[in-house]
Amino acid sequence: MKIRRVLATAVAIAVTTPAVMLSVTPAFADTKPAAQPQAKPTVKELEKAAAEAQKAYDEAVAAEEAAYQAVEDAVSETAPLNVAAEKARKAADEAATAKTTADEAVTDALDDLTEAATDAEREAAEKALAEAKAAATAAATTAETAEADAKAALKLSDDARREAFKALGKAQDATKQTLAAKTAADAALARAKEEENQGGGECLDEPGLTTVVTGFPSKVTAGTATTFSVRVTNGTDKDMEKVLTYASVHATDKSGAKDIAKYLKLKWSSASSPKWKTVDGDLYIDTIGALKRGEHGDIKLRLDVDAKAPAGQGLTFIAGDYFNKDGCGLTPDAAVNKFDIKAAAGKPTPKPDPKPTKTAAAGSGVTPQGSGSSVPVNTTNGSLAATGSSDATAQIALAGGAAVVLGAGAMFLVRRRRTGADV
Question: Rounded to whole angstroms, how far apart are CA atoms 108 and 119?
Answer without folding.
Answer: 18
